[in-house]
Amino acid sequence: MARTKRPPLKGRDLKGFKYFKLLVPLLEKLHPVGTARDKAGNRRLFFDQYTALLLLYFFNPIVVSLRALQQATKLGKVQRLLGVPRTSLGALSEASGVFAAEPLRQVIQELAGRAVPLHHGNEAVALRNLCAVDGTILQGLPQMVWALWMDEQHRAAKLHLHFDILKGVPVDATLTPAACSEPAQLLAMLQPQRFYVLDRGYASYQLFGAILQAGSSLVGRVQDNTAFGLVEDRPLTPAARAAGIVRDAVLNRLGTLYGLETLRHPLRLVIVRRTKADGTPEDLWLVTDRLDLAAELVALAYRYRWTIELFFRWLKCVLGCQHLLALNANGVAIQVYVALIASLLIVLWTGRKPTRRTWEMIQFYLSGWATLEELEEHLQSLETQSPQIKNS
Fold first, then answer.
1. Which residue has the higher pLDDT, 268 or 20?
2. pLDDT at 96 over 60
3. Is the distance from CB of 198 to CB of 218 less than 8 angstroms?
4. I need a labelling partner for 343 at 20 to 30 A (CA). Which of 132, 163, 167, 200 fits?
């Protein structure tokens, strides 16, 4: 059975351009990217325009492919408000290899700096700058020869994400082939004054030491047979016991006494007992340099690491980052970075973390099914306080 041909896009089908107007000044710095080799001066599509088109792709549900995006460039409304000329499909395909993705990281970092914490109270103050770090696999195609993974038939890219938990936004990201070291990527992306929360896959004395040397803090899970030097066991408060904590110990080293990679620094071991899905108990060994925090807040900081997993699900299942518009590494990175920018914009526009319901309402508006008043009514009806971190 022949596939039904989609009707051509019309200007009235695309709405929500007032949001793009707010973004255009920020994208202007991308304009000269990739123009160095244009000696003849005949380039018509620039990086800022290409980025705006990709944002149009993410925010408008009727734009579902590169060909639909090319069709949108024929519309006077798109050309006028986004400053994009009529563009050929070949030019759009070429763009993924002409424009370097790296400058988009700076846009992500700048937008993240504009975001404000969505949570308040004593716990939020104590856990400020809490940053979850993790990686997720984006399935690729066999033609993506750069995306090494399990074998010749399995290709994938890996997104390495830094996620500000209290703001609910990504603050940095890189994209690599799937077969790479996550601790090594974090080592290359370290920033000062962050409170990194790490899963067991990042357990590395070298990495922990580098985080502390960079002027940041951490709470990370380690193996339950990790060697350490004990200074003292702290007494457990009723609040700590209620949080499942069975030990709170101050350490002077992490590793064996004479080990070459031993981390010699004042640290703390907090052991949290939890019940797994199958009903069996499990002890989580959490190491942190934050000697000032209450033990239950150390456990809480690690529990919030799961917010990055929820964001990955949002990125792939709701935003649709599983459908790749390019096959080369740079093009995939551009698409993923623009998706992160789209998520940041939702938080900045709404003052809340993006959810499926809000995303659907925005798409209803952008498709013309909902009015601006109905969208704003939905946003006002949302709870202003997340249940994750309560005011204290």
1. 268
2. yes
3. yes
4. 200
- What span, in angstroms and rounded, lies between the C-alpha atoms of 60 and 68? 11
> Cα-flanking dihedrals φ and ψ of residue 183, to 5°?
-60, -40
**Cβ neighbours, 10 Å, residue 71:** 16
Residue 80 is which amino acid? R
Residue 346 reports pLDDT greater than 80: yes
Q: Comparing 229 with 4, which gets the higher pLDDT?
A: 229
CA distance 218 to 204: 12
Residue partners of 351: CB distance under 8 A and separation at least 6? 118
Question: Which of residues 330 and 345 earns the better pLDDT score?
Answer: 330
Encode pLDDT of 232-253 as tens digits.
999 999 999 999 999 999 999 9
- Between residues 58 and 141, the one the model is more confident about: 58
Q: Which residue reads 């004042």 in tokens?
A: 266
pLDDT band for position 354 (cuts 50, 70, 90): confident
Q: Which 3-state string (H, E, C) describes the chain?
A: CCCCCCCCCCHHHCCCHHHHHHHHHHHHHHCCCCCCCCCCCCCCCCHHHHHHHHHHHHHCCCCCCHHHHHHHCCCHHHHHHHCCCCCCHHHHHHHHHHCCCHHHHHHHHHHHHHCCCCCCCHHHHHCCCEEEEEEEEEECCCCCCCCCCCECCECEEEEEEEEECCCCEEEEEEEEECCCCHHHHHHHHCCCCCEEEECHHHCCHHHHHHHHHCCCEEEEEECCCCCEEEEEECCCCHHHHHCCEEEEEEEEEECCCCCCCCECCCEEEEEEEEECCCCCEEEEEEEECCCCCCHHHHHHHHHCCHHHHHHHHHHHHHCCCCCCCCCCHHHHHHHHHHHHHHHHHHHHHHCCCCCHHHHHHHHHHHCCCCCHHHHHHHHHHCCCCCCCCCCC
* Per-residue model confidence (pLDDT) at position 19: 54
In tens, the pLDDT along 325-341 reads 888 899 999 999 999 99
User: Strand 281-288 to strand 156-164: parallel, antiparallel, or no bridges (unpaired)?
Assistant: unpaired
